[in-house]
């Protein structure tokens, strides 16, 4: 795998692979020619991509001629239309694998000296839904990749893949639970203003298997939605937080590539304990948008999991003006809401709608489905 964001990879990077004689490995495979039109060619393509997803994810690059897994030349490929070729491959991936792989991306890498020539990069993440099988033309085969190439999975590898997929979900949940536990047990290096609060984790799926090794600084650390001019180095990474005492919230940019946020999402008004969901959604969008932009510049790729907990919400009710149903929803009796983790890969404002529906439902209100997260006016 090339350690750069997929959309930042250039023709020069492909040439460098050849100059370095970078061999294929568990997360990198080369192909000289485009995917052919025969059914056998399409099945081979689907096997290659699913093998990466069923292992640790990685890059499949078309346009690099390799011998025994070592690049010999970067000749490129010449599709009639790069966009049409990408669409063809996308359709194959959508219809030819079960379950569908979430989070893959396809990129045309043009040769600046000959724009009709270029490479096609398919970046495939490690998958929460593995193992994936090839179902094109009634096939029913599972593949996995190791350091020497791909092979069909045997019964022991299949069993291990199903177990590993469940373990990956548990690992993602544990990564979020860590920051909730730190807050709950008073381990944070500063106090946070009173309840109710949101605790949100933005987690690249990759780090559940192989964490990044970032060196966050004040300039590269993410901010929480209420701002944060103060910063504090820590064992885990860098805190950015609002400097009042107690603080209104923080963002923790971890060395692993994960970012955690915590801020207040309600308060007491007219002798009632209230949660403001529209304000929460706007602040959630601002937090995630800033963090995604910052992390991508540091080479941290998706897809991502967004884990959300609301803590200290006991005896609170939701209030959202004209968007509520008009009935007096009862105050919540539970102290914590934990929303099932949501995977995001593109337009997270749309992808987080199901999670926000559950957030509203936890407070006995129905959220309007058609409105993207953060877009509703009070």
Task: Give the helix/strand layout.
Elements: H1 11-19, E1 28-31, H2 39-53, E2 57-62, E3 64-67, E4 70-74, H3 82-96, E5 97-98, E6 105-111, E7 114-125, E8 133-134, E9 141-146, E10 149-152, H4 155-184, E11 197-204, E12 230-233, E13 237-241, E14 249-254, E15 259-264, E16 266-269, E17 272-275, H5 277-297, E18 304-311, E19 317-318, E20 336-344, H6 348-351, H7 353-362
Parallel strand pairs: 1-2, 17-19
Antiparallel strand pairs: 2-7, 3-4, 5-8, 6-7, 8-9, 9-10, 11-15, 11-18, 12-13, 13-14, 14-15, 16-17, 18-20
Proportion of residues in extended strands: 25-35%
Termini separation comes to 45 Å
Helix and strand element order: HEHEEEHEEEEEEHEEEEEEEHEEEHH
The main sheet comes to: 7 strands, antiparallel
Residue stretches low in confidence (pLDDT < 50, at least 5 long) are none
Quick recap:
With 378 residues, this protein is α+β, with helices and mostly antiparallel strands. The chain contains seven helices and 20 strands.
Structure write-up:
This protein is α+β, with helices and mostly antiparallel strands. The chain has 2 domains: 6-153, Schlafen, AAA domain (Methyltransferase, Cobalt-precorrin-4 Transmethylase, Domain 2), CATH 3.30.950; 174-362, no CATH class. It has helices at residues 11-19, 39-53, 82-96, 155-184, 277-297, 348-351, 353-362; strands at 28-31, 57-62, 64-67, 70-74, 97-98, 105-111, 114-125, 133-134, 141-146, 149-152, 197-204, 230-233, 237-241, 249-254, 259-264, 266-269, 272-275, 304-311, 317-318, 336-344. Strand 13 (237-241) and strand 14 (249-254) form a beta hairpin. It starts with 10 loop residues before the first helix and ends in a 16-residue tail after the last helix. The mean pLDDT is 88.
